[in-house]
Structure formats: C-alpha cells, structure tokens
Amino acid sequence: MKKIKIKNKGYIIFFILFMAISSCVLQDQTVSEHNKKLQEPAAELASYPSIYGILTSNRWAYLSKYKRTDLTPVKNNNPYPEPQPYREHPQSLALSADGTKLYITLTGNEESPGNHVAVFDIASKKVIKKIKVGLSPYSLALYPNGKFLIVINQFSNYASVINTKTDAVTNEIPLDFYCRKILFNKKGTKAYVSNRYLNQIFLLNIKLEQNMLKGEIKRLGGFNEQNFRQTVYPILNKSCGTSNCHASNTGGFYAGENRLEAFFSAIENSTTGDAANSVILKAIISTKEGGFADDLSGNNFHAAGTVIFKKNNPEYKTIENWINTASYGPGIPVGNFGSKPESLYLSKDEQYLYVGNMGTQDISVIDTDKNQEVAGIYMQNIILDICAYYDKKTEKEFLIASSMGIGFGAAKERDPFGGETENPNNPAAQYSVLRDIETTEPFPIQQQKILGQFDAIDGTAAYKMTDIQNDITLINAKALNIPKFITNSNSLEYALLVNRYEAHKNWVRYTSDSAEILPHEPSGDIPPELQRVIGAYPVCVKTDGNRLYTLMTGTYQLVEWEINPNAAEPSEYLVPVKAYETGIMPKDIAIGKKGTKSENLIFVSNFLGETISIINKKTGVSKEHNVGDLTRPFPDTNAERGEVFVNTAIFSVDQDTSCTSCHINHTNDARGWGAGQAIAQMKDGKFVNGGILGIPQIKNLFAIQPFYFEGTHTCFDAQFDDAREHVALQGFLEENPKGDFTNINCPIPFNQREKEHEEIQDKMSTNSYGAAYADLKERRDEMIRQISMKYFGKAYNFRDFQRFIGEFQAAETRLNPNPYDQKNRSVIRGKKLFNRLDINCIVCHSAPEFTNKGEELYNNNEKTLPAVISFTKREKAFTLVGPHWMDKANNYKRDLEYWEEGRVERKQGNVAVFQLRGLFDRPFAFLHHGRAVSIRETIAAPDHYSLRKFKYPVLRGGENVRKNRTERGFNELSFIEEKTYMMDTHGGTSHLNAIQIEDLENFLLSIE
Length: 1008
Fold this sequence. Notes:
Elements: E1 4-8, E2 11-13, H1 31-38, E3 90-95, E4 101-108, E5 113-121, E6 126-132, E7 137-142, E8 148-153, E9 158-163, E10 168-174, E11 179-184, E12 190-195, E13 200-209, E14 212-217, H2 225-240, H3 259-268, H4 279-282, E15 300-302, H5 314-324, E16 332-333, E17 341-346, E18 352-357, E19 362-367, E20 372-378, E21 383-391, E22 396-404, E23 470-476, E24 494-497, E25 507-512, E26 531-533, E27 538-544, E28 547-552, E29 557-563, E30 574-581, E31 586-591, E32 601-606, E33 611-616, E34 622-626, H6 638-647, E35 680-681, E36 687-688, H7 718-726, H8 772-792, H9 798-811, H10 825-835, H11 841-844, E37 865-866, H12 883-889, E38 910-911, H13 935-939, E39 955-956, E40 959-960, E41 972-975, E42 980-983, H14 994-1006
Parallel strand pairs: 20-24, 25-26
Antiparallel strand pairs: 1-2, 1-15, 3-4, 4-5, 5-6, 7-8, 8-9, 9-10, 11-12, 12-13, 13-14, 13-16, 17-18, 18-19, 19-20, 21-22, 22-23, 23-25, 27-28, 28-29, 29-30, 31-32, 32-33, 33-34, 35-36, 37-38, 39-40, 41-42
C-alpha cells in the first residue's frame, strides 16, 4: 500500500498522525523508540485507544486496568447565582423481598449529586438509615433471591451492592459511567445494563460467592489483535509498510515495523464489521469495485491512482474477513448513532431483550442467545419506559411502552397541489410571516414570499405546540416479525412501525384525553376511543396482575388502567379506571407485595417534592412522607418556582404540555420541531405549519446569552415565548380542563387600556382579538393565580413566571460531567484540528463555553452571523420577535432587565453560534433545522468518504430521509434564490481525511 493522497482545489496535502508515548514497553518495541523512528516528538501523554473501534472512557483503553472512579461534577459558571437549597431528589424505588423496607435513591442534581440510598421503614413511615453508595445513584434493582440490592450510579464507573439484611454496601461491580438500568435473568446468573454514553447494553456474568454478589462485564466484540498480528499485519507491512509508503504515518495510515501501532492504525481506518465501507480497503481498490484508489477526479485518491488489490485477491479477502468478524463492544450496540438506551424488559422466555432508546425514536430487540440486536420497533418519539403483561389464557406477551406523542408540529401530510405549491394563484398557497420589526405586525401578504415544499410531515393534524401529547402503546410481542438469522448486524429493519394513532389486533397506540379539547386544536383527526391517556409525561409504567400503572410526572398523577387483552375491540385492550394524586414531579413506582406489610400499597417517589407518596389501593387515599431535606419547604426560591413551570404541566391549559415535553432531560426529544416560530400563513391570514427547527438544550444558559439560534432572547425572556404555548389565549375562549374562566374580564375599561400589539405566540391567525385580547390575558392570569395558590401558597401571574423561569435558567449549568477519555490519542489529535485556523472551529466555538458571544465577531445586538449551512425556504419565512422587544413596541414598562431594549430577528437566515458543551449527552438532532442526526453530519462536507451507514432507516414522520442509509454532510451552503452552492462554510473540513474527521468528532464528544 502506498501513500494515500487527498486532493482539494488543485493541491495535495499530506497529513501526519501525532503518535503517543507511554511508559509501557510494547511487545515489538517501546513507544518512545517508535516515536524516535518516526521522528515525531510526543507533545502530550496519550492513552491507547480501545479495540472496539469507538471512543470510550479510559475504562476500556488498551492495556488499561480498571480503576474505581467518580466523575467530577461540572462547576457553575454563574459567578453570582441566587443561593439555592440543597435538594436530595428522591428518584428510584425498590421494595425489599419481605415488603418491610423501601429503598430510595437520593440522586441530587448535576452540580451537587447525591451519594446515598435511603431506607424507609414501611411500618413507622420513616427513613431509618442512609447508605452511602456511588455518585448520583440513578436506579435500583433487587437481585432475584432478594438478599441483595444493586444500585446503578450514573457518575461512577461501578454499581454498589447492598446486603438487604444488614443494609450495608458489601461489594461493588465494575461497570462504566452513565449506566442507567439493570435487569437480571430469572436465575440471577446474568444481568443486562443499559449504558447511555456508549449506546450499548452490557452483559454481566453474576456469581454468588460466600454470601457475596459479584459481577463482571462479559466483554463482547472488538478487533482481534492475534489474528491481525498473524494474518493481516504481514500483508499490510509487505504491501504498504515500505520506506516510501507507510513505514511512517502518511495520509493517516501506518503499516511499519511496530505491530501494535499498525494494529491501532488499521482499526482507525476500518469500519467495524463492514469491510465494504472501510477506508483501509476502499483506498486501495478501483472505482469499478467500489473504491476510490484511481479516482483522480475526486477529492480522494491513492498514490497517483495506484490500485493495490482486487476484491478476489486472497490477501484482500484476509483483511476483509478480519474487519467483517469484528463488532462494536464492549457491550451490545443498539440503534442508530446516539440511541441512548435506558429502559429494559426481558421476555418471559428470556429469548429477547427489549430496550427503550432515549436518543432515537425506537425500541431495540436483542437476541439473548446471539447477544446481538436483531430488529427494532419504530415509535416516532423517544421511549420513556417499557414494561409488559403476560396473558396466561392466550400465552400472549404484550409490550407496553410510554412515550410522548408522534406529532412534532409539522404538517400532517404532503400537499403538492395545495400548501406546498409555488403557484401564487393557488388559494391554498402558503406565505412567509415577515414582520415590521418596530411594530411587530406582519407585513401585508403582497410583501411576503411564497414558500412551497414542507420541511417535514408528522401524520397529525395538530400543529405547533398543540401537537404535544402523551402516549401509551401496547404491542403483541409474539406477533413481531423478528428475523431468526441476521446476515449483517450493521443493517437492520424495523419489525413494526407504530407511528399512527390506530387500533389493530396486534398493536394499539393511545394518546392524551385532551388531544382535541381546546378550541384551536383540530378535531376528528384521532379516533375518540384512542384519546384516553390521563395526565402528562408518562415517565414510568408498571404492571401488577391485570392492572397497568402509568406515572404522570407532569401532572402529579398515578393512573390505574385495566388490561383487557381478549377484548373484541382492540381499542379496549387498555381502559383507565382511576387516578391517584402524588407529590411534586413523581419519578418512580414500587408496587406492594402480597402477604407483606406493603400489600395493597403503591409507593411513588416525588423528585421535586422531596417526598414519597404512599397510595392505598383500597381506600384511594394518598399520603406524602418526607425522605429528603425539607428544612426549606419546596419551592422556596424564584428559581425553584421556575423549575416547577419548566418541568411539569400543571400550569398548562390542557394539562398536556411542559417545557420538558420537548426538552426532555433538559436536552431535546431527538427531533426537529414545527415550533412556535416555524409557521407560515395563507392569504386569509390563517397561520399554518410546515417548517421545522432544531430544539436546543436548556443547559448552561446563563453563559451563552443571547440564545435561540436567532440570538433574540436572554435568560429572562427566552421561555416567555414558549411558556405562552402552555397557556395559549385560545384556551380561554371557552371552558378548558382547568375550569371555566369565561366570566372573567379585564377590569380596566377598554378606552383606558394601553394600545398593544398582540403577542405573536398567542395567535393562531393574524386576525386581531380586539377587545377580547385583554380579557383573555386576564383569564390566563387568573388560572395561574389559582394554581400557584394551590402549590405555592401565594398568587402569581404570568409575568411573575417570566422572572421565575429566567432565574431557574440562570441558577445552574445543569451540564453533566463528560465520561470520555480526555487522553485518548484521537481526542488529542482532534483538539489540535479544532484549534487550527484553516479548519476554523475555534473562532466561533471558543472555549470555555465553546460558543462566541464576543463583540469582535459581530456588528449587531443579536450577535448573529450569516448562515453557515443551508436553510430551507421555510426557515427564513418568519420574523422572530423577543418578548422584551415586544414590550418596547407595546410601551410596556417592566422592572425586569429594564436596561435591555430587547432583540428581534433583523435579518432572516442569520444565526447565533451554537454551544458545544454537553454534546455527548444530547439526542442527535443538530443545526438550526434539526436535520443533522449525527455529529459527523454537522462537520463533514456532502459525500465525504468518511460518512457512515446507519443501522436502521432514518425516518422523520414516517418518511425515509436517508434513502441509502448514509450520513449526509451538512458542511455546505446553498442559496436557494441565487442558485449557488459552496462547501466548507461550516469550517474547512472537506480536505480532511477520514481519520481526521473522526478525530474532530471525538474531540467534540469529549467537550465538557
């Protein structure tokens, strides 16, 4: 193999790989000797990569030994935050086998994580002990014999094992950071653990030795080093490792005398389990056979077009077999990029493990014999929890999944002859909503532009935030078409699509009972018999006999359902029968055990309330008991009052909606959204949908103002827009789920009211409310006053909550500590690339916040720059107006940020710089339009040879948006009106080789 050349704009660039040094003596020669031979001085001490072909924590670095470690929480970068009470945040629950004790994780928060499990005595209703465990205990599971309790600590790389007799930690099981849930098989010999940051399921071998529970991860996958040394290395060294080729690192590849370095280089140039798409082989075969060795017209070719192998060559076959027999590890990978697995359910026969993914919109199915993912279930929203019901009569097993709704604010379906038309004479044509920035009123329709094709469709008639719903789906697991044999584990199909509100013999999807209850919500779209989900945000589901319990964290309810698997009408499979009250923001359920003191009781943890609720099923009575620190009763500060509004739905007019409906876990829901701003209008002034926008995380907000992609908001007015969606004025035209407020009117006489330009986000049409506008606002304020009196003991209005939400946003970073190995050689190389001025990442994404809000980069108050990636017509179809700017237009005098004149989107298509902190923890929906579904898609140019294949079809609203299952590079800018096109507008990356693109991606993942 000769030098790999990379051509760009007429010149050839050779790339040098900075090799690491280590004190470890290698099998062939020391690293220091190797560096000396390559004449590359080692600038930084680097660790070896793993053998799994992915970036990991240092837990899996080659030759590393396990070291018990806790992550260091991210410090608050607000120098003057309002002091907040410490809250222990009870989260997960587990009952002891004898039903006398309840174990409760005290998780704390991101900045001050907890490290205790509380032991609650059911007879005395008191916490009798706190057991010190790892950092940020996230979930609990009782071992099958009941003698041990396993605690998963998300900020620690180990699980804590508690002896339930002594209530003391007796052992720790080595794991990795960001493990989420653990599930045992019936015999207790195996356990499955979901890991969020690696997107994998760990398989644990479990042993009982001398009354001690021990566990060890069974390492799966990886590249076989022995086979490489014996069969692959001789071929590469002979063909490529000569002095004028890759005896030193050239073009990102090394095949010299150091076998270990050659092994790592081969891994870096290979796509795990997929030789056909591996650079190491594509670079040395002809274009006729699917390579690019002789592609002199492209950006990549090999040594003046030299072809080394043909596919039928035995040496090629040897390398191909080595790559194809490798697989990702150390666990079982699930889903597409960034799947973030969480909830687990093992089928009754233990043949399949079902995994609910929080980063992609699906459930993965793992064959437990093969330890391999074999299929998926597409849900069109992330999975909050899964459980199951087994019907003994029919021997059917039903999966039950909780999620948010299928809609994301976009149009229901394609409409090429109506709303998507570009013919201005079509009465259904849709236009932009560009506004006079001084008055905030839309320009006349004659000054608007016609839009054309929708950005996406979602299958529901509701739009904007009315599309936020809460779903329960029941699936006959026995009827799933799960393949018995998988020829390519890197290319799988969905066994079932359940992204519709329909009732079938083998699956039913239910949604909110208030889905069509408000005047502005489209009616008749969803069958009435499927609108039966009570409450908001079904965070937890569990079954007990023929009863299903759904915990609604947004509305403080536990809802009991009857399971009727043999009903003649599929819509009657699940019927809600009762709702119980809980404390503030419930998180988990533990169901009492027959024949014990816990019989007929249900226990609920209340995350914000610092309590547990004990519900008596016979009497229906629910009582709260303190388990956390309520020295200062919750909520005690403005920030805590804002936290309630952001995280729960009690203030929403239809009891469906909260900020976290989209910003799940303060990140996002893995989808672009037809949000409040993504709107269009028709000639008659009616607002419609059709565009989508990316959902930013609501973390680290204090330090990155102004925010929103358009730079139009500060901490104290940002959520004022979105909060209005929860309590849209249309909801007060008639009686709503919170009461009848239609008899309440504004007390100020009409002729004495200040003239106002009506609030943009409150209007579903451009027709004025006129005199009713002030009345509707008064009704909204009255509803909020009543609710805040109930929960806070004091009446507040909507303007008060603008302040509360702002203080909540500014109080903490809420960033999670980064788990990746900061000394990984790829991360170190990627950091150097990031800081290179020819690549130009560092200019806009400068440390420590990895954004740039400095005055030197901008000449406008919004601190925005011209677009660096392509927009659709609908992305530049509206003028975003910040609430402070609207206040100025309305002559409203406020005490909140009185010096701030407000911000408005002066130029459509300009964007603020996105912050890069916390990328590893986010579901992958990036860029202004949310259409990039991996980090690599945001940095690579279109058709770059480093782009990878997706495991599953990439669906958006049921439409396949990656026809060939290949990543699409978005580092380009096309001007729709001007019909021009440029690459490398989002950094100079088109000339980088595949390893450099991966290095840059790995550095982005490592940013804390």
